[in-house]
Structure formats: C-alpha cells, structure tokens
Write a structure and sequence with these properties.
The protein is of the alpha+beta class. It folds into three domains: 195 residues, Threonyl-tRNA Synthetase, Chain A, domain 2 (2-Layer Sandwich); 263 residues, Bira Bifunctional Protein, Domain 2 (BirA Bifunctional Protein, domain 2), CATH 3.30.930; 93 residues, Anticodon-binding domain (Rossmann fold). Helix 1 packs across helix 2. It is globular. The two termini are 45 Å apart. The mean pLDDT is 91.
Amino acid sequence: MPAIKPSDFTPVNTMRHSAAHVLAAAVMELFPEAKLGVGPVIENGFFYDVELAKPLTPVDLQRLEKRMAKIIQRNEPFVREEMKLDDAISFFEKLGQKFKVELLKDIKTKGTTSMKEDEEGDIDAAKPDVASIYRTGKFVDLCRGPHVKSSREIGAVKLRSIAGAYWRGNEKNPMLQRIYGLAFATQADLDAHLTMVAESEKRDHRKLGPELDLFAFSALVGPGLPLFTPRGTMMRRELETFVLSLQEPFGYTRVWIPHLAKSDLYKTSGHWDKFQDDLFHVKSKKSDDEFVLKPMNCPHHTQIFASQLRSYRDLPLRYGEVTTVYRDENTGQLQGLSRVRSITQDDAHVFCRLDQVEQEAANVYKIITKFYAAFKMPLRIRLSVHDPKNKKAYLGSDEVWAKAEGTLKALLKKFKRDYEIGVGEAAFYGPKIDFIAKDAIGREWQLATIQLDFNLPERFTLEYVGDDGAKHRPVMIHRAILGSVERFMGVLIEHFAGAFPTWLAPVQVQIIPVGKDHWKVAKKLREMLAVEGIRAASDDLRDTVGYKIRKAEKLKIPYMLVIGDKEKSLKKLNVRIRGKKNEKQVALKAFIAKVKKEIAERKPTLTV
C-alpha cells in the first residue's frame, strides 16, 4: 500500500503520522536494541519498519499497543528541531540508528531526489544542509512531520499485523519487520472500520471465487493469470453483453486487434518511455523486429483510424471491444482478481471533432450511470488533472493541458454534479473524469472513466478533412465502463457476497429431483427453462434432498425447484428462494414469467 504524501495530509493523516511516531517510541521502550527504519502514513493508518534480533509475536503486538496507550496518556508534546546534516549524522550514529544515518548520508551526497515518499528526513530547499527531527518525551526521530501538538490528540489506535519488508524496498538490503496499525479520530470510527474489515474478510473474492467455482489459478500457468471456469465465463459474458447493450444505441461499433505489436507503436505513443519496465517483451526468431504484448489498446485503435482518409462527415467514429492487455506486474503486488497480469478491458475510443466532445462525453456519462444503477452502486465523481509541479510525467504542452482540463470542467458543470479535483491523477496523455463506485459495505472503487486526449492524435499525426477542405486533428476520448473485467468481477463478488442477482448468476435455477423416479421430469423441466432463456441445472446425484439444497445454497443459486411426486405434472412447482427456508407453491408459467422479468430488467433482488 503506497504511502500518503505529507502534502496530502488531512488532520486525521497528521494524527496517523503521530501514531507511527508513538509506535516507534513504544518499540524503543520495550526493545531498546531495535533499529528503526521508516514509518509513513498509509490509507486508514500507518506502519513502521524495525530491525530486531527476534521475530515479533502477536503477544508483542499487544504489548506494543498497551505501551502506545501509555505514551498517548502521558500527553507528551511533539517538538520539532533542526540540526545541521553533519550534526544529525553524528547524533543518530551515537544512538546506533544505522538506517537513519544511511538516509541522512544519502541526502548529503545525493540531495532530496534520492528520497522516496515514505522515507523521512525532508530537507527544506532554503536550508539544504539542515535536517528535521521531532522529540516526544525521551524519544527522538528523524522526521519531516507534520505532527499533532501532543500525544493525547491522537485518537483511537489499534495494531493489526506484522509483515516482512526489505529496507528501502531492495531485496539486497536487510529484511525488516513491518508493524501495521490503524488510527482514527474516534473509537466509533475505528470500530466501524473494524466491522467493515471483518465483513470484507467474509466477502473476500479470493475465497468466495473458488468456492463458487468461478475462477482458479495454476502454478503452471503462472501468477496473476486467472483461469475462468464455465460459471465464471458465463458471468463475464453477461457483463460484456450488458455493456454492449448500453453502448450500441450510441453508435459504437466493434473492432478487433491483435495481442502484440512492434515496440515502435508504443515508442510513438509515448508508452514506451513511461512504462517500458511494465511491458512483456516478445522476441521473434524470424525477424529482427522487437515486439511486446499489448499493455493497452489505444495505439492500435489510432491505426484503424489512420488506415483511411477521414472526412468531418465521418466523425465521430466510435471503436469498442472487450479484449485483454498484459502488464508485467511485480509478483508481490499481485492480488486475486484485483491485480493481475492479464487484464480484460471493455475498451472504447471515440475520434471526434472538438465541437462533438461535449455530446460524446455526455453519452458516455449516460452509459456509466445506467450500468452502475443495475448494481445499486452509487457514484461520486473526480476530475483528475495533471500536477503542474511534475511536468515530466505527462505528454503535451501547458496549452494542450489547459484546453483539455477546461473542456472537462465545462462538461461537469453541465452534468450538474458535485465533483472533487484530483491533482496528479490524470493519465499521462490527458485529464479524465473518474467515477468512484461505493459497494455494499461502504468501500470505494475507481472503475469507470472518461479521458480526453489531444496528445495521441498529435503523436500519430491523425487527420480528417474539415468542411473547409483543410486537414485537422481529431480529439480522442478514451472510455471504460467497468474497467478491468477481472477487477470488476472481484468487486462484484464482494459487493454481493457471492449472492448474485438472477440475471448475473451463472446458474439461475437449480432443479432438485427427490429420487431417480423424478430424473426424467427434472430433465424435461430443465429443457423447458432453457428454451425460455433461463440457465438451469439438475442435480441427479443419489444424495438426499437436504444435502442437494445445502449444495445449491453454498453455490448461492437464486432459485431451487424441488421435484417430487406432487410436482411430476409440472403444473405447480415447489420453489425455494436463496437465503429463505420457506418453500412456496408457484404455477410453472408464473414462475417462468417472474424469472424472465428479473433477467430482462436486471433486478438486483429476487421475487416469486
């Protein structure tokens, strides 16, 4: 989890930073021989890296938490001091804090550019030979701050776990012990977060996915490369069909592109310089050309546009597809479906005139809001703009960025929706409108996006002939609705806790024949439901009815139909709804009509 920059500190993050400082103080009181690494703020809390002769245990974690509580109650002030770099080096050498000394020496020889976001000891540009330290009681640490005024201003704190971490993220360096903690302004906030964490663990898609027979991983295939079962593939297709059904009325047409390309394509687009280390390189034995597995689709789509001379009358052109891209993620960062190496995108790119941008973006906005309404996932909006202090991270001139960002701001004004500004969150080629969805337990996920791009059309010299007979550059809109299919499926599994609405469930109806005498009737019913477009399965194993029901419940199938002697005529069905113990007698035609309505309307709840 990345550290939060001091420049982004809110009052609660300042408190979390102070909690990390108090944790280090508690470590030194209980383990005076400890060598301290760094202790940054992360989402919902903090961590501190320490080197100890013995591994910490859960009991040690409890002792540290109690000692932190004592330090907080002592109400010790946080006092900032400045030291000359040489004095600071001598000071921490006497304390035996070798990692702090290393950081200071790096600053002295290489400057602040050698420092990572999570490494303490920031240097004021106006005082390049001065280091910042903080004292809390007898404890002193190399630290950039900021901190609360005194320790009692720290709210509710809980230590969560211990993990291993290489010093400064380099495997050639010593392995330290990383102590993770949570910190919130109040105990109520902490308790609410812990409740959400407990619910998250129950809903974890890495556990539920295999249990529901949706996906698997194989050591032979490789990490970060999920395999989807028939059930999981059915869900993927339903999601893809839904997206396509929403976008086709707006004139999107499907295209197809290969899964690799010459490196020249990405050198021209600018991706090569920015992301070369994240690409999978492919070597040909028949050619000297350098190939890569495609990490994104937009450069390919520009070449479809460039394949013909375009007129202003042809625009907008809307190319869409569902296709897989590949990125060489670090093995340690791979996590279930949330972060993978094969990423399937519901990708689309619109090539249009500047005067068409507003309508095209408004159409995408309509698609996005309709899509997420089907899952009852409310959306908030962020306008992600570039960071003017870090111009090297982006393509294009200041004028291009001002034009693009101004266009999106005008669009959001017309949407009449509140939004926040995310400085530094833009794509490297242009600003974007990000839609952040909230799931059933209150977590937020950045999924859908509308991105405006003046840079790639320029880099690929894309042109169309205007009504004046001159050649003009099109504007490119990058658009994703669910984003990564894999990641979105992980989100959905946890959002619904595996209990998917009828339209999305891999098996919508489980038929449970009481005995062998009822197998033929069950088969007939399954075929009847299939004709009606209902996905049904029949459990013909020689198990008890109770066991078959429990199996169907475990797979979270929406409807179960128990077929015994009374149901042989199929005039009435014995219907059991997922999660409910009571059974209900329903006429076959009425049951089919209700299930088909749920599927067609994509209702998120079950009814009979």
